[in-house]
Write a structure and sequence with these properties.
The protein has helices spanning 7-22, 56-65, 87-95, 102-110, 152-156, 204-209, 211-214, 237-253, 272-276, 281-285, 294-301, 312-321, 328-337, and strands at residues 32-33, 36-37, 119-123, 139-143, 169-177, 182-189, 260-267, 307-311. By secondary structure, the chain is an alpha/beta fold. The protein has a domain at 87-325. β1 (32-33) and β2 (36-37) form a beta hairpin. α4 (102-110) crosses α12 (312-321). It is globular, with a radius of gyration of 20 Å.
């Protein structure tokens, strides 16, 4: 009998068996998510356990000091979601332990062949410092830019917020290439996401908001695909559209002195529901894209130096290959917590 369970289903089941292996003694599951007890959620008193213990306090402080809300977070969104399939917590668990370790960042990302990053030096992001004498971060989270590059504040009103209501990179880092150019990477992180056919372009104000940036003659999107703007308003294409345009505008304005700003998407290879389903009806039928998944389609829309993707599995293999530079406890945590390949 065929197994019709999605990657998300399998991850939920796997977590119900991990309780004694990955969490501290006394940490309990069967917490409520959307008011329903779930075997793959932490109890509210244990929500910090969604993060690796070695980064738990500094990561939560990082978010609070910058006013970044946690997705589905608790305690007024100042603490992580209690859902163990949370993509944001997954991203932080993988990347926050590298955030202040430029040597590890360089070694990990340089050794992933398909990225071809040619890293000379990883550079700090001083604009993310909140307090004097604070350590310089080399990876930042939920970055929206120093300016309102996509004019979203005019549409939404109020103050700009990292991680909510505005186009945010899940993570960002920058480096000097071996040719001397400064390269800024805006990252999108996926874990168990799967998307239905929801048309985000039915909101005319939203549709108009990004049109000017998309249609710029010197913009990032290839001219022959400019007719497909309306077709991109279905997630995950809509998410990628906004992030790619944010990268485009940051490059024009030289955010962080960057000569190049690119987008990097990281997603489990095992998540076939994300990698294989094309949610946009027009893109599904477009002749050039027949038989291709969303990431393959996106790589056809923009130059190769402006978008790339890798799997979480490949990232983890690179971390393992550089584990002498890393915290051994963190490595073991990742093996157990995100070890779907071993199931």
């Amino acid at each position: 009998m065929p197994n019709n369970k999605t990657f998300r289903d399998r991850e939920k089941e796997r977590y119900t068996k991990l309780e004694p292996k990955v969490f501290d003694p006394g940490i309990q599951l069967n917490g409520k998510y959307k008011n329903i007890p779930r075997s793959f959620c932490l109890e509210n008193s244990n929500i910090g356990a969604n993060l690796y213990r070695g980064i738990r306090i500094p990561a939560m402080e990082y978010f609070v000091r910058r006013g970044i809300p946690w997705h589905d977070g608790l305690i007024d969104r100042t603490a992580p979601s209690n859902h163990l399939c949370c993509s944001q917590s997954c991203c932080v668990n993988f990347l926050f332990p590298m955030a202040y370790n430029p040597g590890l960042i360089k070694s990990v990302f340089s050794s992933i062949d398909e990225l071809n990053m040619n890293i000379d030096d990883v550079l700090p992001i001083k604009q993310d410092i909140i307090r004097k004498k604070e350590r310089l971060p080399y990876i930042v989270f939920e970055w929206i830019g120093t300016l309102d590059y996509l004019n979203e504040q005019k549409r939404k009103g109020g103050n700009r917020t990292r991680g909510a209501n505005y186009t945010s990179a899940d993570f960002a880092f920058r480096f000097r290439q071996t040719d001397g150019k400064i390269h800024l990477v805006l990252g999108e992180w996926k874990y168990t996401e799967e998307y239905g056919v929801e048309d985000k372009g039915e909101d005319e104000v939203r549709l108009d908001n990004y049109r000017e940036a998309f249609n710029k003659n010197e913009g990032v999107f290839f001219q022959e695909y400019r007719e497909l703007y309306r077709a991109m308003f279905f997630d995950p294409f809509y998410q990628l559209l906004r992030l790619q345009l944010l990268a485009q505008e940051m490059e024009f304005k030289k955010e962080f002195d960057a000569d190049v700003v690119s987008v990097l998407l990281i997603c489990p290879e095992a998540n076939k529901e994300f990698r294989n389903r094309v949610t946009s009806p027009e893109l599904t039928e477009y002749a050039d894209f027949k038989g291709k998944g969303p990431l393959e389609i996106w790589k056809m829309l923009v130059p190769p130096e402006k978008f790339n993707s890798i799997s979480v599995e490949n990232l983890f293999r690179s971390i393992l290959n550089n584990q002498l530079l890393a915290d051994a406890g963190w490595i073991e945590y990742l093996k157990v917590r995100y070890g779907w390949e071993n199931e």
